[in-house]
Amino acid sequence: MSKNDAKVRKKLKYGTSRKLNGLIFMLPWIIGFITFFAVPIKNTILYSFNKVDVGAAGGIELTFNGIQNYIDLFITEVSTTNQPIQRIFVTENASIITNLPLIVIFSLFLAILANAKYPGRGIVRVIFFLPIVLGLPLIVEWTANSTGRSMIESASGGMFGAQAVSSILLEYTFLPKSVIEFLSTVLDNIFQLFTRTGVQTLIFLAGLQSISPSHYEVAKIEGANSYETFWKVTLPMLSNVLLFAVVYTMIDLFLNSSIAEEVYNFAFAKSKIGVGSALSVVYMANVLVVLVIVLLFLKAVKVIDKD
């Protein structure tokens, strides 16, 4: 083997191994996407520009009508609750943008508690993560239909309920009424927000356990307190994990939004497959736009923090 061949092999080995490993890691997802999702997405886009009917000999008959399905979607069609489609998009986007930071911050807080060192930490972890292992929707439904419902109802009307907290804030603080209404809404939905933090808490916990203890030892030697250690060590080391948790939370919120139910109702309940497909395409575009905005915001915050 010549020296030039050895240099080429060495360059390929060290220059592309990281990308190659990433490609191999993503290969199962790529194969699954092409096999199970690429064709349905292509058909959805195709149906959105056609009037879809059942053919005389069976099967699907397509009649091209351009963007008429999109026009009907936002002008003539209404939701199952008799609301304009654009109002549903505005409401869902506002809800997701509002709940996203609450879920991520609460998940990080729970992960820090689960990762802290105290007696009985193992038992607390088992109790906390058992619903996630068994299936969180099942546990949530069981809790809501049994003692959990009475606890929530008593808490909502008790001393620390949303109405009581709103009255206290209005009387003893100078916060704007809009802020107090927002806090009241958060308290009303605290149980629903808590049910959406399970996977994100696991993600943050894995990230916390991957941080080398030497970083905290250096911070302690430099005289940093717990507050400074969190902002200067923990949070920067969790930047990539935070990004992943944000993306996961956004997708989870969008998948469980009322828009997904409207897509099903248009396509199957109302037999308007073309309009339902158009709603799906707009829905996917909306998800991508909101996701890009959030990622650009996180990138801007990260750049500012570096400066």
Describe the structure.
The protein has 307 residues and is mainly alpha-helical. The protein has a single domain, classed as Orthogonal Bundle (MetI-like fold). 79% of the residues lie in helices and 3% in strands. It is built from 16 helices and 2 strands. The chain has helices spanning 3-36, 38-48, 68-75, 85-115, 121-134, 136-144, 147-157, 162-172, 177-188, 190-195, 198-209, 213-221, 226-237, 239-255, 258-269, 273-306, and strands at 50-54, 60-64. Strands 1-2 form a two-stranded antiparallel sheet. The longest helix has 34 residues, at 3-36. The two termini are 49 Å apart.
In short:
With 307 residues, the chain is mainly α. It contains 16 helices and two strands.
Structural class: mainly alpha
Which stretches are low in confidence, meaning pLDDT under 50 for 5 or more residues running?
155-160, 303-307
End-to-end Cα distance, whole Å, is 49 Å
Strand and helix order: HHEEHHHHHHHHHHHHHH
Q: What is the tally of beta strands?
A: 2
Using the 3D structure, state the CATH architecture: Orthogonal Bundle
- Which overall shape is indicated by the principal axes computed on the Cα atoms? globular
Q: How many H/I helices?
A: 16
CATH topology: MetI-like fold
- Radius of gyration, in Å, reads 25 Å
Helix content: over 70%
Summarize the topology.
Elements: H1 3-36, H2 38-48, E1 50-54, E2 60-64, H3 68-75, H4 85-115, H5 121-134, H6 136-144, H7 147-157, H8 162-172, H9 177-188, H10 190-195, H11 198-209, H12 213-221, H13 226-237, H14 239-255, H15 258-269, H16 273-306
Antiparallel strand pairs: 1-2
